[in-house]
Design goal:
Layout (H helix, E strand, L loop, with lengths): L6 H27 L3 E15 L2 E8 L8 E4 L3 E8 L7 E4 L25 E7 L5 E7 L9 E7 L13 E10 L4 H11 L8 E4 L16 E4 L4 E8 L5 E6 L4 E6 L2 E8 L1 E4 L4 E7 L8 E9 L11 E7 L7 H4 L4 E2 L9 H9 L19 E13 L12 E7 L2 E3 L6 H6 L32 E3 L2 E4 L3 E9 L8 E5 L4 E8 L17 E3 L1 E4 L3 E9 L3 E7 L2 H5 L3 E6 L20
């Protein structure tokens, strides 16, 4: 039997179907762009590794050095189980991931979590929201990140393209720092004696020092390219204590992204990258195979008075030969060197940083706060602290070098700040009276004051949800002016301006760029200068801010922001996971 629909019934059926499609379309659209859940297992274990003709046992993830690459897409959820098989307490930080309402997964020890103890595990559970590009992960306790680090590659959503030409291939280029001695022993001895920790013995590119070091010619990273092709290099500075200049001999690089935010593309021969920063560059290979190999060199940008590791890591860019070319010729091909700026070329550093501008397009807008709710002025720099009574220090009058923000050297608590905040148990753990301004004014970049003793304490700033913050960070000349790469957890911020000398609150705000400022998670406070940033406190939790030179973090150049819950359900910090480690 065939049923025949009347025109009226047919109309009702079609209307019903069309309404269904309207209701279903948003779900289909969401499904198309919804992320997937990706699982990783990080077995934290010791591994014997040989560099510079010496073998030592280092802390690794899954026995790999550098550690495994994490690949995800914007919108994906990550479940990364960290299992601690080593004698040290361990935490992992997912550097640059916003961690919206998931501060429990951020990773800094005694800030958002107690460390994972020997034989224990913890699942870092977070979703990548509104971010794509290159970031990295690293240990966030003591100096373990010397060997415990690896890249994070966040691809755009499916069918979304890069705002620059699609590269032929992509490669992570991760800079590191290598010590022959055990790094935990180095920092523990330095803290015990009140001296400066020993400098590193080498820099590395993807874990390899390269031919400028003794017996390291075979330990050289090689990048093989095809003539005429364009490559995306994902640069990460995972070094502990050194900003780096990077150059590929006889090749121009195009910067297209900084700290996982697209930027207006610009050409450069040399990239400056501080610890904690990531930079994506396009490298266009020459159209014909040249009769040369090209050094990819990384060397420090160092502005402070202290000694530093003045060596150069070298990788090699090689062009793939045609099958007919003989391999014997390959041995005689000259290696062209890459000329880098002077180690203290702060003029070049300033000019390079000023070139980084956000795209500021309709698709990638700049959401810089136009109105400011709270203004802060932070001095960042060095000072001294008295050594404890049972400690004999190397310094005169039993003092030791220290570092601080607004004259406060941060004291790490023995329980996690985020737990104390969430359960309203801050008493005896921290206070929220961190100074908005330095305790006294002085010529910050001129002759230092006679009294350079710092205060110490676990002091935080408390912010209401959605507060717009303007922060000026001012370097000081106490114990020597120096560039400080400041990293803010939980947020990206906008870099409005930077300058040399003392910040002038009357004249300098006129220079603020509110149109296309760089959007970053780590910024270098210029040596003997200042930088102004803004951010919106739209992420409830406790968020660490610190110098990414590990020696300065150890000395106390750190603080934290408490962002209180908002009123809406999506403006509140999630409750802690059941497996959150205990102190």
């Amino acid at each position: 039997m065939v049923s025949v629909l009347t025109s009226s019934a047919l109309f009702k059926t079609l209307l019903f179907l069309s309404l269904c499609s309207v209701w279903l379309l948003p779900d289909l659209a969401l499904a198309k762009h919804a992320g997937i859940t990706r699982h990783y297992k990080f077995n934290i274990k010791m591994q014997n590794v040989t560099r510079l003709c010496q073998t030592k046992s280092i802390v690794t993830v899954n026995g790999q050095f550098p550690g495994p690459r994490i690949i995800a897409r914007e919108g994906d959820r990550l479940l990364i189980k960290g299992v601690n098989h080593v004698q040290y307490n361990v935490t992992i930080h997912w550097h640059g991931i916003r961690q919206l309402r998931s501060g429990w997964a951020d990773g800094p020890a005694y800030v958002t979590q107690c460390p994972i103890q020997t034989g224990q595990s913890y699942v870092y559970n977070f979703t990548i929201t509104g971010q794509r590009g290159t970031l990295f992960w690293h240990a966030h306790i003591s100096w373990l990140r010397a060997t415990l680090y690896g890249p994070i590659v966040i691809l755009p959503k499916r069918h979304a393209s890069y705002p620059f030409p699609q590269p032929f291939k992509e490669f992570p280029i991760v800079f590191g720092e290598w010590w022959k001695a055990d790094t935990e022993t180095i920092i523990n001895q330095a803290m015990a004696t009140g001296g400066a920790p020993n400098i590193s013995d080498a820099f590395t590119i993807n874990g390899l020092p390269g031919p400028s070091y003794n017996c390291s010619a075979k330990e050289t990273f090689k990048l093989k390219v095809k003539p005429g092709k364009t490559y995306l290099l994902r640069l990460v500075n995972a070094a502990l204590n050194d900003e780096l200049f990077f150059r590929v001999a006889n090749h121009t690089l195009t910067v297209v992204e900084a700290d996982a935010v697209y930027v207006k593309p610009f050409k450069t021969d040399i990239v400056l990258i501080t610890p904690g920063q990531t930079t994506n560059v396009l490298l266009k290979a020459k159209s014909k195979t040249p009769n040369a190999k090209f050094a990819m060199s990384a060397r420090p940008y160092a502005t402070g008075p202290a000694t530093f590791d003045n060596t150069t890591a070298i990788g090699i860019l090689e062009y793939k030969k045609s099958a007919s070319a003989s391999s014997s010729n390959n041995m005689n091909i000259p290696l062209l060197k890459a000329k880098l700026p002077q180690f203290n070329d702060s003029t070049y550093a300033m000019k390079f940083n000023q070139k980084i501008r956000s795209l500021a397009t309709r698709k990638f807008p700049v959401k810089v706060p136009k109105k400011v709710d709270r203004r802060f002025f932070f001095t960042v720099g060095l000072g001294i602290l008295p050594c404890s009574k049972n400690q004999t220090c190397q310094g005169p009058n039993n003092v030791r070098p220290a570092a601080g923000i607004n004259n406060v050297s941060f004291v790490q608590p023995n329980t996690a700040l985020l737990q104390a905040h969430f359960f309203n148990r801050s008493k005896g753990v921290y206070t929220t009276n961190f100074p908005t301004n330095p305790p006294f004014k002085f010529n910050y970049t001129g002759t230092p004051p006679k009294n350079i003793m710092l205060d110490s304490g676990t002091k935080l700033v408390s912010l209401n949800y959605n507060t717009s913050v303007e922060l000026v960070m001012q370097d000081t000349s106490i114990l020597g002016a120096e560039s400080h790469p400041l990293h803010l957890h939980g947020f990206n911020f906008f870099v409005l301006a930077q300058g040399i000398g003392n910040f002038d609150p009357k004249r300098d705000p006129a220079k603020f760029n509110l149109v296309d400022p760089a959007e970053r998670n780590t910024v270098g406070v210029p040596s003997g200068g200042w930088v102004a940033i803004r951010f919106l406190a739209d992420n409830p939790g406790v968020w660490f801010m610190h110098c990414h030179l590990e020696v300065h973090t150890s000395w106390g150049l750190k603080m934290a922001w408490v962002v209180n819950d908002g009123k809406g359900p999506k403006q509140k910090l999630m409750p802690p996971p059941a497996d959150l480690p205990k102190c």
